[in-house]
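User: Working on a comparison across species. This one is Phenylalanine--tRNA ligase beta subunit from Alkalibacterium pelagium. Can you predict its structure so I can line it up against the others?
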Amino acid sequence: MKVSYNWLNESLDLSGVSPRDLAEQITLTGIEVDGVSEPAKELKNIVVGHVLTAERMADSDHLNVTVVEVGQEEPVQIVCGAPNVKAGQKVVVALPGARLVNGLKIKKSKLRGVVSNGMICSLEELGFSDSVVPKNSEDGIYVLPEDAHIGEDALTYIGLNDAFIELDITPNRADALSMRGVAYEAGAILEQTPKFTGVNLSEDPTDSVDDYVNVSVENSEDNPIYKMRVIKDLVVTESPLWLQRKLMHAGIRPIDAVVDVTNYIMLEYGQPLHAFDYDALNSKDILVRRAKDSETLITLDGVERKLTADNLVITNGADPVALAGVMGGENTHVTGETKTVALESAVFESSLIRKTAQSLNLRSESSSRFEKGLNKETVQDALDHAAALIASLGNGQVVSGTAEVVSEEPVYQTVTTTLNKINGSLGTDLTIDEVEKIFSRLGFENSVTVDEISVTVPPRRWDISIEADLLEEVARIYGYNQIPSTLPHSESVPGELTHAQKLTRFTRHFMESCGLGQAISYALTTSEKAAAFSLDESELVHLDWPMSEEHKALRQSLLSGLLDNVQYNVARQTKNVALFEIGRIFTRQENDLPKETTHVAGVMTGTLVDNSWQETETRVDYFAVKGIVEEWLDTLGVLEGISFVPSKELPELHPGRTAKVLWNGQYIGVIGQLHPQLAQDRDLNDTVVFELNMEPFLANEQDTLSFESIPKYPGTSRDIAFVVDESVLHEEVMDVMTEVGGKWLRSIRLFDLYQGDNIEAGKKSLAYTLSYLNPDATLKEEEVNSDFEKVKQALVERVQADIR
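Assistant: Here's the predicted structure for Phenylalanine--tRNA ligase beta subunit from Alkalibacterium pelagium:
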């Protein structure tokens, strides 16, 4: 919001505060100021000139030699290239020695041998943007009104003797998107009550609005307030200079008197308006409704828009003539031929305006105000003011009465608090008189009883509804810089991490100790990537309004994001990459918010050990990654319930090198090598991944670990080698030996796996070491041999092992 200091001075007395001081005070009360500009400090020696003659320069197709009266003893000669310069005009002249905003210094010069004593300026040369220059001046100089005084400072006429405060308005302070809203804010800061000029509305008693329009609303929730006035017998002309000046400085291009008044009222009240050419409506009926999916509308920018049920439209009873709150239709806009105007002032449901503006990419000053909310108390005031001004500028008449549908009245919200609550929350020692004064400065009526302060908030501050909002207002106006810094006086309570937090932190440290680096991936991705590697067959969660197609669905696995990171690094010549991530995946639930589940996932590619004079290269494989996962599970104390089951179900993983991870029979994750085709598509070598659901462990708080002393008695071991079918799993063998190994069996370790020469095809040789220990006595040979024989016999019977 660009605030004109001079415009603000119309309702407040700013004689005692400079623009920069005011900006600083506004910042201290919570509205951020992006900057303050004072054009007059940059522009010098720029005056009003009167063009006496303008003749085409010889041998030039665009230059004119003009003689301009500038308030000096003699008129001066100026060469001007503007195509619209003519004798008799009042213009803006930069005399020799003048300085313009682009740093250009004007000097006496010669153009094609002709002396030029200055420059006749266009608005662009004075610092105005091309987008706000009036149409009749966009290709040339700006012509001042005939009553401009020759030789006077021209900056006054075009408003550049003003200062402009650029406010960065947050959504909760949409009341400050109007000059009146800023005036109330500045008035509270300066302890003044803003005064606004009343509306002198004169209606034609012989004509009624009921003879012109009949207003109806299909759904009052979509459109709680809709009002319309009619102005007849108009002559649409160019706006006066004061109006053009205010619009241009606010960043709005002047069009004509009718459109300019609607924009001016929007800036003044924060209430967007729209003017229809009444005769182009071809109907007395005005119906506000949702659009139908088959409907289209050509908007003011000449683009045909395909409408949906999320778009709210104004119709002439049958066909759409405007997108409510966003943009009017091309066929009903005001032109130079318009004689009667139907002027609309309304409140539309903010979410509908937001959806329409986003889906059609039609954000505007009007739509932004409808999206953030409006002051319902001034809907009629803004309409009356605009109607009176349009009639005055166009020599028209306002038809008596307002056609309206109103289902919601302005609400004066009553909020209560106490002095103890204010001082206790802010750490201040304010008295009741000081608090009352603060609310009075804000324009809030208030009453005080023994126990509480009751504050009546006007509709212009619809952001205030709870006690905390009142505390914020007191803090703002009292001054954040005056609130004392204090330490809390409450009893100190020692804090500690929850089990889930401890486990998450431990997991991060463990993975880092294994050589994996932590990555953080974006939870939003494409639909294809969101569904890849999913452990749960659930529908994807899509955003209604995604930023782009690449960020439209919530992930159901961490692996897609990690693989993108690995691919990025490998493409930049980092061949050995090991990454992990602890994050949440999202699954859809019926009639509820998405379910969020914490997972840990990792990806490794390249080598574990590089080739050197001392060591042989060792590449990443399934077993290396499985070892990391097993070690992590073992440190959590849950390895005994873990089993690994071969799987071919995930199409993204290698069908012969993938296993499901089960915990007490519950499917919690997967380990596997990336499918060769997918690896090729991503330009990756052998890549192994894992992903585990951490929720069962986060909810399963383990007992405190206990430690035992080192055994006093020695243990012993036995080695066993045997041949089995290659389809027999290591886990099956382990289960058999653990089950029958006896009470002294402490550990089993696979130390050899062989297939090749001297081994029958389809067979494999396995060799294990079985360790035995009795912590209370020395083991006897016959006890160990007996248990060992049971192991060999069970292997022969249950996995058809051929003991070697």
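For your comparison, note: The chain has 20 helices and 43 strands.

User: Helpful, thanks.
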